[in-house]
Amino acid sequence: MLRLGQGREAEVYAWGESFVLKLFWPEFSREDVELEADLATKVWAAGAPSPKVEDLLEVEGRWGIVYERIFGVSLIEYVWQNPDQLFDTAALLGLLHRRLHQISSPRHTGGWLPSQRERFLQRIRASKLDEALRRDLLAYMGGLPEGSALCHGDFHPDNVLVSGQVPLSSENAWIIDWPNAVQGNPLADVARTGLLLLYSALPPNLPARRELLARRKQFYQVYLEHYFGSAPKADWEELEAWMPVVAAVRLREGIEEEEPTLMRLIRRGLRRR
């Protein structure tokens, strides 16, 4: 099999001419993989620009999902190949995210998606926060509004594939990797994206790493401007209110080099309430 790439959860292989196999690492159980396949099927059926699930199978003791193959490159690779298109890429990311959030959680595809709030609660309770800070944060989150939008949960440039054409178009873009899909407040989903764009520790071998690090604040601003369009100022303020919550959720992922920044964001956000 021709390996196309790999990540923290899985390797991706070409599977015939029209499909790919996302083959999970051995520590992922059949139940884990079935959950992702179920979520991906629901969001595809709801109309999200995403690849269709074709099959679930086992290869040499590892479980995998066969997806429709999208012939394109990630937005990270696209920036690496077209560095002059950095801000066009940010604009596309914002427009695509707004388009996604216009889809309501898909009741008609076999049940609701998981609750964003419940997922946040679980991860914050399991985080490294001390008990007093955790209690304050959970009380703070209780005052933030819920929602029913389809949210990706981990929306960033490496999870968007494009055809590679210039100029970019949201009509030729697809969103991949849906294990964190939830129904919830879209601005919490935007806050997660902002956290990743501004503060995530980028892998040293990431294509376009230098360009993204040097201009990540400008990239984020262009993304936001195209996501919000003419949205009222209150939406921008609510976005900021979600930042300490998504920072605490990210803390649960155990990325040691990010922890000082995440703790700073949590404490700063709670001081502002």
- If strands are numbered along the chain, what order do they take across the biggest sheet? 1-2-3-5-4
Low-confidence stretches: none
Distance between the ends? 53 Å
Q: SSE string, helix = H, strand = E?
A: EEEHEEEHHHHEEEEHHHHH
Number of strands: 10
Mean pLDDT level: 92
Number of helices: 10
How helix-rich are the residues, as a percent range?
A: 40-55%
Q: How would you classify the helix and strand content by structural class? A: alpha+beta
Determine the strand fraction and express it as a percent band.
15-25%
Cα shape:
globular
How can the largest sheet be summarized? 5 strands, antiparallel
Radius of gyration: 18 Å
Notes on the protein architecture:
The chain is α+β, with helices and mostly antiparallel strands and 273 residues long. The protein has ten helices and ten strands. A five-stranded antiparallel β-sheet has the order 1-2-3-5-4, with helices on one face. A three-stranded antiparallel β-sheet has the order 6-8-9. A hairpin with a 2-residue loop joins strand 4 (53-59) and strand 5 (62-68). Helix 3 (86-101) runs parallel beside helix 8. The longest helix has 19 residues, at 233-251.
Key terms:
5-stranded antiparallel β-sheet, 10 strands, alpha+beta, 10 helices, 273 residues
Question: What is the topology?
Answer:
Blueprint: E1 3-6, E2 10-15, E3 19-24, H1 30-45, E4 53-59, E5 62-68, E6 73-74, H2 75-81, H3 86-101, H4 116-125, H5 131-142, E7 149-151, E8 160-162, E9 173-175, E10 182-184, H6 186-199, H7 209-214, H8 216-228, H9 233-251, H10 259-271
